[in-house]
Amino acid sequence: MTSHATAGATASADLVRARYGRGTTVAAVAVTGGWHVAYNLPAMVALWGVYRWPVLVAACWLTYGLGVVVAARAALAGRRPAGLWVWCAVTFAVTALVAAASPSPLGSENWAWGAAGWLAILLLWQRRIRELLLFLAGTAVLSVGAVALSGYTDRVSLARTVMVVAGTVTLQLGFAGGARALRAAAQWAATAAAARAEAATAAEIAERTRHARWDRYERLRRSTVDLLRGLADGEADPADPLVRHRCAVQAGRLRRLLVERDDAPTALIRELHACADTAERRGVAVDISAVGAVRSLPAAVRRELAEPIIVALAAAARRARVTVTTMPAEVTVAAVVDTAQPPPPAPSGPVAAGVEIQREQTEGQLWVEATVRLPGQRSGGPG
Amino acid sequence: MPVAIIDDHPVVIEGVRAWLERDPYARVEVVATGGDLDEVLAGGGARAEVLLLDLNLHGHLVTDRVATLAAADHRVVVFSQDTDGDTIMAVLDVGAHAYLSKNEGPEHCLETILAAAADRSYVTPSVAGAIIADTDPARPALSPQERRALLLWFQSMSTQSVARRMEISEHTVRQYIKRARLKYASAGRAAPTKAALLARAIEDGLIRPEDVDTYRSHAAE
Fold first, then answer.
1. Of A87, A80, A82, A93, whose CA–CA distance to A125 is shortest?
2. Among the listed residues A180, A166, A184, the one whose alpha carbon sits nearest the alpha carbon of residue A117
3. CA-based torsion, B183, B187, B190, B191: positive or negative
4. Euclidean distance between CA atoms A115 and A113, whole angstroms
5. Which residues lie closer than 8 Å to A243 by C-beta, 6 or more apart?
6. Is A273 helix (H, G, I), strand (E, B) or coil?
7. Beta strand pairing status for A349-350 and A355-362?
8. Cβ-defined contact of A383 to B141 (cutoff 8 Å)
9. Which residue of A has its CA nearest to B162?
10. Fewer C-beta neighbours within 10 Å, C or N terminus of chain A?
């Protein structure tokens, strides 16, 4: 595929991934932020009087809120929040302080317990799941410790503790896991879409090339059949040099069509074939020979290589031989044509894009050779 | 000089016969033709000195048959529409004397066959093109003049024009081209036909016996 098309495919894959990814990020922010405002706040305000140090709890709530803002902004922007580990420590501290300030850690006044996990999800957004697990394990230990220290060691309390811990952890882990799975799915969708687009483009190109080739074949077939019919009927006399020339021209065109093997010949070869077609319509027999592994060349180089050949073909009288030689270190395009009249003299020497041109004009023959050195190759053979 | 033509298209056989009969000295006589290699060899082809063999017989390439023929010391000139450089080099490597592309037939066919009969190799423009574009890391090293001569010969198909471009004699141009071809004859797979080419070249004074070892050691790098 061309580099343009590949870059396009990557860009569209990124776009799809970003669009899908954004949805889950917004959901996480909404849940965390909403929980903090719609649950934590009312719980705190309603049970204000119960706390040992209410102002401390309020300060914790504000700190937590700030943490949500920082984490949300970073997650939406797709980057890691500044002072990530500091914020994690702060969240731990908030959890511990609120638990300490609550007379009953199992009661609704201990809002930090469940909320800590949500802030952790945002802070550790799209990082390794290990880190989130560690954090949740830490808060779970903290919570169980707080319950034990408060003296609620009876079976019912312990059962309640386990229930709450399990409930919040599974919910939060589930959300985080789901977000990651959605991201992976978005990646697959993007890759699949890009691959499908590539395949569709390649199929389209192949189809167009096939059509173009078929059209050329059809036109060629008609003109060849006319010629053959003329020969068969006796109208065209094979001894007539004009007829022989026509045969040579047709043979050259057929040969060129049959020789095309690649699905999409390189741009340089295509351009030369186009020039040859033009010359052939004037009645010049053109023979194109290409050797060497085809290389893709920049448009400017191709232009400079093809230009002198076009001019030479335009000056051709009856026969022309165009050759393209791709060697490891250089590419040479040459045209040897017979000329009835010499074309206007043009100088030899280097022209733009690193192409060098040599011209030789003799009696009735013009020889043009355009060479460009290829970068990054050793010239010649081994030794 | 008897020659056998093996091609699966009768019209090609007739065409080549016509080309060869145009020789005013009638140096070549077509003694056997056909589309099946074994049949031709069993029949009149047994006394042919040169086999003009189409590489694409009945839909597949018979490069391996070229190898067996060359190993049995038959002089094979491969005649094909396919002018892919790799195919040409492969065919020369297994011991074909020469390669002739079907569209350069009229001008070069007779020369190629006569040269092959004398264990000399006539280098057609398609072979010249294949040699300069050869990228095999084990290929023999060619001198800059040899490469230039091959390239100009491939471009113009006229020794006279090449001689003029390079400002040397036509004889020297042919020397360069032949020497390049001989380097390939002394490299790659061994075959009695390649040894014959080299022996004749030494007789002709084109190369010296010690040059063969040099060429071989270059190829081994």
1. A80
2. A166
3. negative
4. 6
5. A230, A231, A236, A237
6. helix
7. antiparallel
8. yes
9. A367
10. C
A380·B142 Cβ contact <8 A: yes
Q: Are A321 and B155 within 8 A, CB to CB?
A: yes
Per DSSP, the three-state class of B22 is coil
pLDDT tens-place string over residues A334-373: 999 998 766 666 666 777 778 888 888 888 899 999 999 8
Nearest CA in chain B to A336: B156
Asked whether the beta carbons of residue B157 and residue A321 sit closer than 8 angstroms, the reply is yes
pLDDT (mean) for A119-123: 86
Tell me which residue of A293, A289, A284 sits closest to A272, measured CA to CA. Answer: A289
For chain A, the residue count is: 383
Whether residues B147 and A255 touch (CB distance < 8 A) is answered with no
Residue A287 sits at the chain B interface (C-beta within 8 Å): yes
Residues of B with CB under 8 A from a CB of A: 81, 83, 85, 103, 125-126, 129-130, 132-133, 135, 137-142, 144, 147, 151, 154-158, 161, 164-165, 218, 221
Which of A259, A289, A357, A361 to substitute to test the interface with B, most B CBs within 10 Å?
Answer: A289
Higher pLDDT, A285 or B210: A285
- C-alpha A134/C-alpha B175 separation (Å) is 82
For A138, phi then psi, to 5°, come to -60, -45
Question: Exposed, middle or buried: residue B166 (CB in 10 Å: 0-12, 13-18, 19+)?
Answer: middle
> What pLDDT was estimated at residue A245?
80
Question: Residues, chain B, total?
Answer: 221
Chain centroid to Cα A273, Å, comes to: 32
Q: Please tell me which residue, B112 or A297, carries the higher pLDDT value.
A: B112
Given an 8 Å threshold on Cβ–Cβ distance, is B155 in contact with A323? yes
| Contacts A291 to B, Cβ<8 Å | 85, 129-130, 132-133, 154
Cα B118 from Cα A264, distance rounded (Å): 43
The answer to whether residue A348 neighbours chain B at the CB level (below 8 Å) is: no
Q: State the pTM of this model.
A: 0.64
Q: Residue A292 and residue B221: Cβ atoms within 8 Å?
A: no
Residues of A in contact with B156 (CB under 8 A): 321, 334, 336, 367
The better pLDDT of the pair A283, A351 is held by A283
Look at A294-298, B64-68, B124-128, B175-179 and tell me which has the smallest mean pLDDT: A294-298
**Residue among B106, B28, B93 at smallest CA distance from B66:** B93
Taking CA–CA distances from B143, the nearest residue in chain A reads A380
* Sequence-separated (6 or more) residues with CB below 8 Å from residue A50: A102, A103, A107, A109
Closest CA of chain B from A368, distance in Å: 10
pLDDT on residue A122: 86
Q: Is the Cβ–Cβ distance between A300 and A353 less than 8 Å?
A: yes
ipTM of the complex: 0.86
For residue A303, which of A261, A340, A263, A271 has the smallest C-alpha distance? A271
CA separation for the pair A158, A165 (Å, rounded) = 10
Is the pLDDT assigned to residue B174 strictly greater than 50? yes
